[in-house]
Amino acid sequence: MPDNPFLRLDYQPILESLGDDYFDRVLAAEFPQHLLRWRNDDLLPQVGLDPSRVSDNHFIQAFGQFKGDRSFLALRYHGRQFGEYNPWLGDGRGFLYGQLRGRDGELYDLGTKGSGTTPYSRGADGRLTLKGGVREVLAGEMLHRLGVTTSRILSLVETGELLWRGDEPSPTRSSVMVRCSRSHIRFGTFERLHYLERSDLTQELLNHVIECYYPAPLPLVKPEAPREKYIRFYDELVQRMARLAAQWMAAGFCHGVLNTDNMSITGESFDYGPYAFIPHYDPQFTAAYFDYAGRYSYGNQPLVCSLNLELLSLALASVIPQSAMKQSLEQFNCHYDSHYRRLMLSRLGLEDLPESEGKELVALTLGLLKDTQNGYGQFFLGLRESFDRNWRIEIDAIPNWSAAGPSTLWQAWKTLYHRILSRTSEQELSQLEQRLQRANPRIILLREEIEAIWEPIAIENNWEPFNQFIQQLSD
Ligand SMILES: Nc1ncnc2c1ncn2[C@@H]1O[C@H](COP(=O)(O)OP(=O)(O)OP(=O)(O)O)[C@@H](O)[C@H]1O
Ligand SMILES: [Mg+2]
Asked: Where does ATP bind (predicted)?
């Protein structure tokens, strides 16, 4: 065991050193079985490990059996869930396993899900279903491939218990996963401190967040303007959230449960429960079956992010001047629009278009997607696969891969795309082709694909389609 590289990593107890106000020390559950179902070899170098030196058994010992003498911290947080304030939250089925510096010098958290009960389990079992774990791995990898700022799953271990769930045929199989994220400090972590009227802790935790995740650009903050760093932090968070919302929207991703306890203070995407990728472009598409009012629908995501930022500003008002936060928040839509346009254009292989032309092309593309109800991911994949350099010369060489029909919209789209291509050099065309490949993966992850991956696992424990899917993601 001492040779287990996970146990020898240089964990830094940075959050732990802030003291007991933010967490409870907990133990991991003991599971009857440990079967490694997923190891993210792509992530290992990021945390300084060579995959060839890490065995499956190392994963199992560290992230299934939780061997070693580490202290596990269930983080305390509250949250606003579907509009209602909930002060009974906290890590109810997970804990912070450890923090470490990545190869890039940044601080990362390894956190669990499904690792047993904690003081925040509220009578629930503290477990994660295997299907839930598989879905979370798939979401993290797919979003990463699509360029979304996301947490990723490092390991998934099946644990041999039978679980009962209302939203899965039960009994269903169990698992425990370890997630690598920037931080698991949530908007709700600050909401809790505000609720408890602990402005001293709010300031302490903000200092921690700024130091670890918002390093100030030079020149350093002037001593006579001590609040400046807090104002800058909030302003940057607004920008990061606007970018994240734009990334979800361009990826065609509906997170499904954008409660404030599922919003990372670093602006990273995480917690993939009832998420879905949209089959067609439909702003009203809703992922969670229990989201009856469509609060967290696909099209509402940017608005919800800005509303959540507003809720956060209430919790931070003891430290950051509210007027400054309001000013930053007013820029949310502007940041969002420019990120969204840039990302949509990159799905079309383009960059650096004059603003009005970019806007026009994105509007035409959305119009087409809406009109034809062509598959969202398929449209961009179709473009990637049918793209031909001749399109630059001959407008009629552009085939109708989108099943758009001879509509006026399709003619307008073709005309504009052709016009843009016609002033593109040979070298720029190669870059365009590369961008198309980078922005549009060969495979998509609709509900059908997830079920097609899950069914062989459920029926005959066949992990081949799961592994194949992950492999194809790199194409
Ligand atoms: N089976 C369970 N046992 C105990 N607590 C649970 C369980 N499922 C959810 N919870 C708790 O309910 C709250 C909301 O759950 P949610 O699904 O958003 O978070 P999560 O998926 O468990 O964790 P994370 O947000 O870290 O991804 C959290 O406090 C979570 O810990
Ligand atoms: Mg959550």
From this structure: 90, 92-93, 113, 125-126, 179, 186, 271
